[in-house]
Design goal:
single chain; mainly beta; 11-stranded mixed β-sheet; 6-stranded antiparallel β-sheet; 12% helix; disordered N terminus
């Protein structure tokens, strides 16, 4: 698709008086003041410039600056059928879906603009999570993990809160779920306990509205995005014009939240990623660059993703190298493998 570029006519500036004319005018005014007396007007106060409205750094929506002065919270959330429906997932700002063992997936979900009382079920850390979560700072909560993965996560600037090592009561097991899908985190409380930590930096660029977002203005209409993480893990996102959101499905069925509503996203970002399968735990490779698709407002735009370093955010750019703006709202990022049955389909 060929992008149309709008050009604005160049306005020529009005001619200014030359220095000699300005000097002559000043002499005449001075002479008039000597003869008649001049009253000097008091200096006028400069008109204050309205401050740009604050926006939530992980959502792009308007926010009271005072409500943004706290850290983000990342939590490893299970996605096995027994873990569904998850608790608090519908209120997250960002959700990363990543491949784990057996062709299954797990979430790294982040809350900042709207932190629920509880989130879960909380599960263990994985080898790609340090690279994924370092740019956000703040807090990461998980149930445990292999020692080398925990050590790598603890070596980042992110505060680690670990169920296996915590005796403060911030985690608890609930009676209505079977172990190990029964660990729940008191999310709002853990953020309050560490309110001195800095808020997250903005990770993506946001447009002022969904209609002006990059995919909406330069993409092609696409009603459904299908992602396959393996031969046994298929996900779908279907555009719902009435709700102005993408409806999530898993393995051929609607994906629901704990209240019985459909999980939805304002933006769906798909990253095609390599996976290191040299050990029994697959590791998504998140440093470098690759193909991507950005879906907003019922349209999808092919893109390129770039992550220059472990602590660097993921950048999304179009064919011209310009940053792609998302719509204000929540975003799901699908980290789809380039091999092992991974696939992406963009359907009308």
């Amino acid at each position: 698709m060929t992008a149309l570029r709008m050009t604005t006519p160049v306005r020529r500036p009005r001619s200014r008086r030359t220095g000699s004319h300005a000097w002559a005018a000043a002499v005449l005014i001075g002479a008039a003041c000597v003869l008649t007396g001049c009253v000097t007007a008091p200096p006028t106060e400069p008109t204050p410039t309205a401050a740009a409205p604050a926006v939530a750094p992980l959502r792009g929506t308007p926010i009271d600056p005072a409500d943004a002065e706290h850290p983000s919270l990342a939590v490893k959330i299970d996605n096995l059928p027994a873990a569904r429906p998850q608790i608090g997932l519908e209120r997250s700002d960002l959700v990363f879906e990543e491949l784990v063992e057996g062709g299954l997936t797990r979430y790294a979900a982040l809350w900042h603009s709207d932190v629920p009382d509880d989130v879960g079920p909380v599960r263990s850390i994985r080898p790609m999570d340090p690279d994924l979560l370092s740019p956000f700072g703040g807090i990461v909560a998980y149930s445990g993990g292999q020692p080398q993965f925990i050590e790598a996560m603890q070596n980042t600037p992110v505060l680690n809160v670990i169920f296996d090592q915590d005796d403060s009561g911030i985690f608890r097991r609930v009676d209505d779920r079977e172990s190990p899908q029964d660990v729940v985190l008191s999310a709002a409380e853990v953020v309050d306990r560490h309110a001195d930590l800095a808020p997250p930096e903005r990770q993506f660029d946001y447009a002022d509205s969904a209609a002006s977002a990059g995919a909406a203005t330069a993409g092609e209409a696409a009603g459904t995005i299908v992602t396959r993480f393996s031969d046994s893990s298929e996900r779908s996102w279907t555009w719902d014009p009435a709700g102005s959101a993408y409806l999530r499905g898993q393995d051929g069925a609607p994906d629901l939240d704990a209240g019985g509503g459909r999980l939805v996203a304002t933006n769906v970002v798909v990253l095609s990623v390599g996976v290191d399968r040299s050990t029994d735990v697959p590791r998504t490779i998140l440093e470098g660059t690759g193909q991507a698709w950005v879906s907003t407002n019922g349209s999808t735009l092919p893109a390129t993703w770039t992550k220059d370093a472990p602590a660097a955010p993921i950048k999304l750019t179009d064919a011209d190298g310009a940053a792609i703006e998302l719509a204000p709202g929540n975003t799901w990022i699908e980290l789809v493998p380039t091999d092992g049955g991974g696939a992406v389909e963009i359907l009308p």
